[in-house]
């Protein structure tokens, strides 16, 4: 095929005739595949010389795609072809810079420029032309624009080249900003180019251009060219997000200009809103800088409040759900911009800086005669509450008292937004708000369920849902979730909530109201559990009716909520109470599964979560249904849906974004000097995979060996999840599932445990080596420990070293973060910044604690394997933490780690015992910190138990002498005010446990002289409480004294009966099963 025929072929690709176009596409693809170099060169010739603009445009687009192929045909072309390509692209630069061809021409030239650069060839002719064009005073605007676009497109790959020519770039861009009339495209391109280059290490050189850039914005503002203003502000926002240093020297000028734009009613809404977005982004990126700009924070906060003062609600607001309403308003509503802005600025700048302004605005408007002002005041609290949590928490009671009356406001809008505000406060201030202010809130909100306006009634339901759902218990404790006190506060409201929600379901025609009412019943069922027993006969038929509704799209959310409600109710009230309905519910779920649930069916996730509840309710009676649901869960667990990474060719835009299906996210990221990459994440499939993993794990916890026939398939799926990149929760689930199956195999004494350990260990080790999330590391290490426990020979020295190094490396990283935080706190004077540093310190402390706990987890799992290597690596850190100037937190962690070693691997630390004893005694005399004292008392306790249990063994410390020193050191605690301080209840429990150990081992020998006084202290402190583990141990030991007539009781005749009476009075949570059984026989 010659070039003329090839040009005709390109023309046929534009044909309106489908058959002709498809034939041309097939012929073109064949030509490119057969001889890509020839096709590339032919298209370069056509792009430079074709008369028909349509053929030129098609040729430019296709040439760019061919140049971006991997590998590019340019790389395999001979020298003459490459030279010819460069020449033709220079012709394109000069001939195609006009009209609709400019963008394609710039992309094509850019693609070749990158290939030339990556091939280490010279193309100075192009760049000399480009720099000359952009630097020419009064030159051709479109040609300059194309040159800026070429620099922009090539900059990511050619950053090193541009850094060497930054002076020419800066001068040229300055000329572009100074260009006179009809140059909006040029200035926008220069804007974007400047911002992109600044993010590639050239910000210092380009910073003098910022005043020129702001001048351009001001000129377009004065001319009323809103579209140009908006596009340049958008480019600036992107620049602030990627590299704010370009603008920091001009922060005050920039922010003042944006305030003028955002506050001017004559400015187009799009430009005003983009100015707000710019200021918010600036606040989020450099809050400390923004706080120093005089009056800006208060003025901006007040402006955002003004945006909420004139809301425009749709005519059908009364009968429309909130989700639909926000969808309609989001694009151009001042209300949405102002409300979300209050949220973002409060979170960015903190409460102290904005406290006075927020309080004044709220107080001046909450009881204003105009409903719009009352509405804005409620919105302020709703959206600013999270960011201002520190200051609002101190005034929460008075705040609630001022907000709650507006649940009965004469304006329906104010009523609805007040309920939304209380719902948000229930999230931001949980559980304090629920536990302390329920009496001020619940009566009014429950009454609002009967509001005559459907929208308001649904807001009341959503408010109750949030109020209940945001108080979370301990999901790890099967016996006590810690919600008993909260349930007691809800008890008086259960009947009216249930009856009003049932009435709403029976009377409304609106699905959004039904969904809201079912949401309340779902939360009540989840939290109140067995308290709903009397309501089962009235609630289940309501849910069954909802489930019988037709499967139309508008009904699906209601049916999903009904599935959630009925299965949570079953789980809460238990198998016997739900017996009359369990078969119907399981059959319904089973039929849906058999019919074939798809990932885009909204019921899928509710059905799978529903099975979790039904298995928890029915236990072994759920077995007949597992054959239907487990294969579906395994299929979901095994889906291949990890992230995909693809190159973005030079000059390629966002062509695929519009065609992106639901449940898929795409993100671009830049690798300087390499180019752009596109990450595709199948969010919907990942959510399904995560859900299936959680459901399977929950079923394993409930059924255990009852799932044995599925163990192999579940384990295989779990092993695959260990390497899942996108979701740390899926990796965590995989490790948790393996740990649970290994535990079940141990219980069954099944040799398959060793087989699974052999299969899982290499994958666990690989996954651990790549893991950065501490919570996931913890579960992986627990699973590794379980593997070692069932198959000790599996742990090689190499793997042991890898595990230890990984844990210590993680510890080093977070300790470095905390040390940096502590240094900043020493010199910081800004109160909001100090608040943020305090939060950061708390978060890092939690992470350090978690990593330290990992060491204890491994020592418990296999001290023989891990004690020696951790002793070598961890003890230098522990020693440092015990020395000044370490704070109480580090000393607490050090004593906790020492306790782990003493408890689980005492033989490994025998040479260090004298130093450990000395440190423990010293700490007890120097600190009054509750956490450190508790940890130190525990350390001394395990030391006393170790020494007392081995009195004849020479381990470097005389147990009797140490016991005397410990008693003398701890005795002052019992006469101090700390014993009666609520903050020290756990500490006191550990002090009591320590005294019991001292008496148990040395009460008749080294401590005989003080035993009577110590027994008095013990008797007065019983029953033990709060620290349930230590309390159970204390009560077990004392019951042993009494029943076995321990000689120590002779120091205090008659004490046994008193001790027994006090132990009987202990909370059931503080008694072991053996103790409960013994007491029940008395």
Automatic annotation (TrEMBL):
Annotated protein name in UniProt: TOG domain-containing protein
Source organism of the structure: Leptomonas seymouri
Name of a matching Pfam family: Importin_rep_4
Sequence ranges of the HEAT repeats: 441-479
InterPro entries: ARM-like, ARM-type_fold, HEAT_type_2, Importin_beta, Importin_rep_4
Keyword tags: Cytoplasm, Protein transport, Repeat, Transport
Keyword Nucleus in annotation: no
GO CC terms: cytoplasm; nucleus
GO BP of this protein: protein import into nucleus
Compartment list: Cytoplasm
Keyword Repeat: yes
Residue intervals passing through the bilayer: none
